[in-house]
Amino acid sequence: MQITSVGHAGFHIRTEAGTILCDPWVNPTYFASWFPFPDNSRLDWESLGDVDYLYVSHLHRDHFDAAHLAKYVNKDATILLPDYPVLDLRRELEALGFTKFFETEDSVKHTITGPKGSVDIMIVALRAPADGPIGDSGILISDGETTCFNMNDARPVDMDVIHDAFGDIDIHLLQYSGAIWYPAVYDIPARTKANFGKQKRQRGMDRARSYIEQVGATWVVPSAGPPVFLDAELRYLNDDRGDEGNIFPDQMVFLDQMNIHGNEGGILMIPGSVADVRGKELDLTHPFDPDRIYGDKAAYIEEMAQRFAPVLAAEKASWETGEGSLLEPLRELFEPIMKQSALISDGIGYPVGLVIGEETIVLDFPHRTVRAPLEGEGRYRYGFRIAPELVRTVLRDNEPDWVNTIFLSTRFQAWRIGGYNEFLYTFFKCLTDERIAYADGWFSEAHDDSAVTELDGWEVQRRCPHLKADLSKFGVVEGNNLTCNLHGWQWDLESGRCKTSKGHELRSRKL
What we know:
Blueprint: E1 2-7, E2 10-15, E3 18-22, H1 45-48, E4 53-55, H2 66-72, E5 78-81, H3 88-95, E6 100-103, E7 110-114, E8 117-126, E9 136-142, E10 147-152, H4 160-166, E11 171-175, H5 190-215, E12 219-223, H6 251-260, E13 274-278, E14 281-285, H7 291-294, H8 297-307, H9 309-317, H10 327-340, H11 342-348, E15 351-356, E16 359-364, E17 369-371, E18 382-386, H12 388-396, H13 403-407, E19 412-416, H14 422-428, H15 433-444, E20 452-455, E21 458-461, H16 471-474, E22 475-478, E23 481-484, E24 489-492, E25 508-510
Parallel strand pairs: 3-4, 4-5, 5-6, 10-11, 11-12, 15-18
Antiparallel strand pairs: 1-2, 1-13, 2-3, 7-8, 8-9, 9-10, 13-14, 15-16, 16-17, 18-19, 20-21, 21-25, 22-23, 23-24
């Protein structure tokens, strides 16, 4: 099996049964905030796109690059389609001209037959509202000699199904770096923000190391991040100054983490690197010395910024400008969704303030209305400051997901009083009838918390109240505090109270 890195979470995988292109991303995204790092724009995309199969893990725009797929990827390629309950991914690919789909079943091994033979695949599909834009996934590929698990930035909760189907894993491609706006955009003191960032950074790497232990692959490739921020307004987000509170550590940082913890199977791949894998044997070649990137990372980023300045300027010029109140357009968008999502609206539970330029608009979730501020109304429990051109652009484009556009851009500010509210961000990624109906129904289903596990002198329910992760594998106890490293949520073990978000109580008792 020959695996070529094509940047970020993208890989070109060659087997005797055919070629598979996974998650190619080249064009800047999230309002031109994110660019691939290291730069992959100079690869031979005509050749890389001439494949037998295409796998797009999910609809986050650093995995689903519509313009690139339309221009470079062979439309006769068969799509290896994750088993998602909402069909948005298939519809988007069909709109680009793809017509051949191999519909997989979640966590079921399939055999696909190519030009020269067959290869086994399995796509693990994650379906919770928090997983990508209504779905995230990872893919296993085995040619009979080598098994590759491309986990990209999915967070599976059950590794047993993988080992039951494929046995030992030879090479594991996984995310380790941040892909979120927290805590950078929050209106909090700088020292507090730095502490939160340090915790977020370490938890992300701890989670990745937990997956490494559970998968047990011979080789591990840190991938799916970080992006690089080339806009002068956002350059502070790059981890090029030794800031331990930066949530976007690069590949070298994580490889050091692996070595510190005794795992010597980590390998660096940059765009164009090729790994020839034969079971547990691996030969690696790079297109050039990676020290050109990591030896002086700040200089490399500056060179990219200068080269891509016209691209960034063109992206900014495409944003929608205009005048006039946005109250009525947002009322038309949000009120029908509020009225369809009783559980989610009640879960948010408070009015939310949108400060859009000089205008403040209130999303009154308890009353399911969008309105102007009331006289004497104080600071809102949850709020966002967003430039009007970003809001006008997502309205122009009929964008169903503000998380996958405005929020991931980090081009906004946020505040909150109290803990994280999962229902609020779920609402903003579900701005269609189909999405909100699915999400509201998902939350209404009772989680299975009947099984228990023991952790450091405590008996706790085995499945995390958040997204059902196995706490015997992801749970970490420190004193009376439990952290689930899958998403970093925390509980007070004495009371069972969730310290991260409203609700989600944990059943626990001291042994």
